[in-house]
Amino acid sequence: QEIVSPExxxxxxxxxxxxxxxxKNDKSKTWQANLRLISKFDTVxxxxxLYNHIQLSSNLMSGCDxxxxxxxxxxxxxxxxxxxxxxxxxxxxxxxxRADLDRFWLETLLxxxxxxxxDHSDDVCGAVVNVRAKGDKISIWTTDFENKDAIxxxxxxxxxxxxxxxxxxxxxxxxxxxxxxxxxxxxxxxxV
Amino acid sequence: GTRIIYDRKFLLDCRSSP
Lengths: 192, 18
Fold this sequence. Notes:
The complex is a heterodimer. Chain A is of the alpha+beta class.
C-alpha cells in the first residue's frame, strides 16, 4: 500500500485571495468597460494554472495592462483602498521589453502572492503592468502614501528582488500627484 | 496571526510539479 502525503494533494493556500484583471485599450468604450476581471485564485497551484494559461506581457498589444489586486480592491485610483495610496514605479526602456519585462512582472507577482514584504505586505493593494509603445511600466500599489516605513521597506525589498542596481533610483508617487500632474513626470514622495 | 509567506524558490518549484 502506497502512503500518500498531504503535500501531494493539498494545494498551498495563499495569505490573500487575488484577482487578475486585463485592460484592453478600445477607444470606442469607456475606461471601465475596457477593464475585465480574468480570474481569482487563493492557492499557489491556482496561481500557476492561471499564469501558465495567459499571454506574457511582452506579447500583449500596446495599450494593454494586467493588474493583480487583492480580492475586493478594484485596480483604479478611486477605490477606497487606493485613493490615499501611491505606487512604486518601474519604467522600462523600449529595449527592456525583450530583456526584462516578463521577468520583472513575474517577479512582481511572486512578491505579491508570496507576501515578500512581511507584515508590510498588508499595505500592498496590487500591481500593474502597462504595455506601451513609448516604454512599458510596472508598479506596486500601496494603500497610504503617509505610511513611510511600509513604503520604504516595500521599495527596498522590491528593488532587490528585481535586481535593480543600487545606483539606479526608483521612485514612489502618490496617485493624487499622478492624477493632477501638469507635465510628463510626477514628483517622487520616496526613493530607494 | 501568522502570515503565509512563500519565497521565490518555493513558488518557482511549485510551477513544475504536476
